Amino acid sequence: MSVFLEGSWNASPPQISAPGRGRLLVRNVSKSFKVSGAPIEVLHDISLDVAAGEFIVVLGPSGCGKSTLLRLISGLERDYRGSISQDGEAITGTSLDRGIVFQEPRLFPWATVWQNVALGLKNAPISESAKRESIAAHIALVGLDGFENAYPHQLSGGMAQRAAIARGLVNRPRLLLLDEPFGALDALTRARLQIELQRIWAHEKITMILVTHDVDEAVFLGDRVVVLAPRPGRISRIFEITASRPRKRDDDHLIRIRNEVLRTLESDGASPPTRPAAALGNAS
Known about the structure:
Layout (H helix, E strand, L loop, with lengths): L1 E4 L18 E12 L2 E13 L4 E5 L6 H9 L6 E6 L2 E2 L7 E4 L11 H6 L9 H14 L15 H13 L5 E5 L7 H18 L2 E6 L2 H7 L2 E6 L4 E8 L10 H16 L9 H6 L2
Helix pairs in contact: 3-4, 6-7
């Protein structure tokens, strides 16, 4: 079953997750930039509770502040109003407890897959043998067995993004942030990696927050889809998606909620790119 919720009261997670590490609290967060000396508000009064182990998707058109919100959560930016905390501790900077994957893989071209993934453990307080074990396990988890010694130029776009995901996960963070990780990939590779990400999330049992402007992707992956309206970015609606996992793209409930999300975006004055209406039902 899939339902959608309206109003500011829907920012709390459904009571389905067991207590654990990786809970995120965002309270009344606003963010402004200066353009030609004048302040421009890009985020306005964002409040959101994310349960440990939940998969949240932040959806909205370009310019609505969704990537800015992700940067605030990661600790890469600290100049904002409001508060953000993880597991009861205020986020005041970057941390090994939070991994991040960007739209571009950002692999070092002179390093192999193994070496790129190993960078995620550079400051980890564990033994070298434990590091090697974790690197091997996460390369296998993303399906890159046999490519440990390959260089980025020898990988396809999808394989490079798998390596980036392995690097983000290798330190076993409590929270993984994904900033449009499949945005630069072709449609077939994108669909395949969405299925893989669903599998990885189920295996790792950590909290994930993914930013996207693709409605189909949001509905397929999220436990909840947080729709941001633009200028300034603010929560317009939150959709709770309770379809069973692993999900099928032809699920009637997913198709129904997809259409509700599209109507919400249109009423907010934004209609992000999406595949034709039949595509969600025809893809597997």
